[in-house]
Amino acid sequence: MKLVLFDCDGTLVDSVGLIHEVMARTFVHFGYDRPDVSLTKSIIGLTLDIAIARMQGKPHVDDEAVAMTGHYKSIYAQTRAEAGFQEPVFDGIRAMIETLAKREELLMGAVTGKSRRGLDLIMDTHGFRQHFIVSRTADDCPSKPHPAMVTECCSQTGIVPADTIVIGDATYDMQMAKAAGAKAIGVAWGYASVDDLWKAGADAIVNHPSEIPGHIPG
Are the C-beta atoms of 170 and 41 separated by less than 8 Å? Predict the structure, then answer.
């Protein structure tokens, strides 16, 4: 048996537009300028409070970052409901998941810096819940690149990290996978550069979701 764990934002769904808009509104609410989208992209994948602190150049989460995290969460659903801020799946993702779901030796799951509520919205919106039997979110584990999201999914499914593949678009995903003892596959359509993914420990890079099944041995 193999366990395939997918990151969500930047890997399964293109969520940068929504995340950046909510982040920008949060910064403005607290008296800051709107951040550049490149800065927002650089923190996608981290747990929200750590992400906000890092965007501000802070070495750790302080009271303001906690308050900003609360505000972000309070306006997220309202912003997501506005036209143009949905989170579409990347081209080829749905067909890839359906292909993997047919393989009896594979189990699939999600490891994400999103909240549990945020992940549930994605799973339900795109009909993925039936295929993902295990998941860990920012509500369950320390932020990536800590290996807990992977190791806890392994423990729940009874599959060892050596038989686990983590697929993601962020350097944090690659680092998390290697820290857990799992294989790391980077995706080129997300928010980090291919060069940075290699440097972070990727074992392989795919340019399109259709390439993923070929990297998962039977």
Answer: no
